[in-house]
Design brief:
alpha+beta; five-stranded antiparallel sheet; about 25% helix; about 40% strand; globular
């Protein structure tokens, strides 16, 4: 598995593979695969189809909107299916996305 952090790899049709370690715990769901379906600069959105050993559907839509000179609003929309684990994982995802957004806000205020 090749790990890449560079944005040059984020293009339509590219499949990105990574190991997710939720809250610093074990790699509980194996390799997470992200396939970039669309990057639409006009709509300012990115659509991916994702999955791993537990989540058979983890589709993701990120939408960006300029709200000020130096401000951008973004929205995460996730469609998740993991059988009987769906409700548990959806709660986990809400918590992890909130944490991600807090980290981004903290990073941006430091600059």
């Amino acid at each position: 598995m090749k790990e890449n952090q560079d944005s040059e790899y984020w293009k339509e049709g590219f499949e990105y593979k990574l190991l997710i370690k939720p809250f610093g715990l074990l790699y509980i769901w194996g390799v997470h695969r992200i396939k970039v379906i669309s990057i639409d600069k006009t709509k300012t959105e990115i659509i991916t189809v994702e999955k791993n050993n537990i989540c058979k559907v983890w589709n993701h839509k990120l939408t960006f909107k300029k709200v000020g000179e130096n401000q951008t609003e973004y929205t995460d929309e996730v469609t998740l299916y993991a059988g009987w684990l769906t409700s548990i994982l959806s709660h986990f995802l809400v918590c992890s996305y909130k944490k991600r957004h807090q980290n981004w806000d903290k990073l941006l205020t430091e600059k």
